[in-house]
What does this fold into?
Amino acid sequence: MNALWHAADALAATKGQALGARDWQATGISIDTRTLAKGDLFVALKGETQDGHAHVADAFAKGAAAALVSHAMEHGPGILVPDTLAALGALGVAARARCAARALAVTGSVGKTSTKEALAAALGRQAKTHAAAASFNNHIGVPVTLARLPADSRYGVFEIGMNHAGEIAPLVRMVRPHVAMITTVEAVHVENFADGIKGVAAAKAEIFEAGGETAVLPRDNPFFDVLAARAKTCGVANVLSFGTHANADARLAEWQGTAAGSTARVELMGTRLDFAIGAPGRHWAMNLAGALLAIKALGGDAAQAAASFATLAAPKGRGAQHRVVCADGTQFLLIDDSYNASPPSMRAAFAVLAATPAARRVAVLGDMLELGPDSPALHADLAPSLVEAGIAKVFCCGANMARLCENLPASIEAVHARDSAALEPLVLAGIAAGDALVVKGSLGSRMGRIVAALLAQHQPTRVGGR
It folds into this structure.
């Protein structure tokens, strides 16, 4: 494997002090010894509950090439710096500066990770592409992704997230994207903004603060004009849009969905593209219309990208489907959408469940967090969407989901528990043969434990996949 970082280059980037030998080279970057690969440069970060310096010895035992630390060590070669997080950022900036890749940054209230994955997969079929792993989209994940950027990459795809104002701007200045895409602006994290969703829109628009060539925006969103104006103010040369709007540059003209996937027609700047999508849900088709526009703006082959979408599958925690075989040979379908939740993503998940053939449709729901004072009402307002989706039973947990239970009609059986730990045995006992169930909630609601329990108790088979 080619070296990603030579000692001299890493020392120059971080302006650190050499510890031990200066002839090492690293083939990767790691911030976690549990996933460290032989040859990685281990970055010892100090977190709220963990200090990576306590794991330096373990890193070298597992084959680390060197360590980036803020105090002296005796385990192997490394670099001493005052602040390892700042030094990691410096590595990221240096990696971006030495790479001529066409870069794309994506953000949005929902859909940014799945869109990033689709972009990375499509571009990766055309040329060497580097992309963020999992949801590496914060003040640590973005620098890590940049520091891992190979110098000979043709494309770079970066995901940038936020919970508060001011979080995107410093990260996008590090990425310096040629193309910046916003999937949508919704009432997510609104409790952190005094002016509500307007503040969310302004925070998402920080993705234009590094300038760039092209902004790719959701034309159907109420904040389209605000986002477009901000992009222009920041010096972005071109503003392009996607959606169902007649003026969208990538217009979703037709869509037909099934439980397994869908087909779509997109009118892309005068060219008609008909393609299949391996993941179910209209929200996928909408975001992929934007992805095609971004790929074209990057200089990639949009038609080739569209053809590749048939192999997409929803990622773990974001709609991944598992056919689960019980001990008696009966089966049920589990849709794992447990990673996060907001009102629009909840409704998208219900729509996927509605399209799924089943003897009974079941929703297992945890609280949606960071929605501010309107949170109880936003939970209660999910009731009509559950009815429309033909969902027969709802298991839910959390104080706000109690409001949803109170608003469900008698036709939907409701079970409520205080938290996911209390709900878990009720779900395990309540699933029947032929059910199709979706598990969804904000990350802090810990709905992933229920998915893990369902998969551990039975024999799952992944439905779909790349």
Remarks:
- The chain has a mean pLDDT of 94.
- The longest strand covers residues 250-257.
- The chain is about 35% helix and 25% strand.
- The longest helix spans residues 282-298.
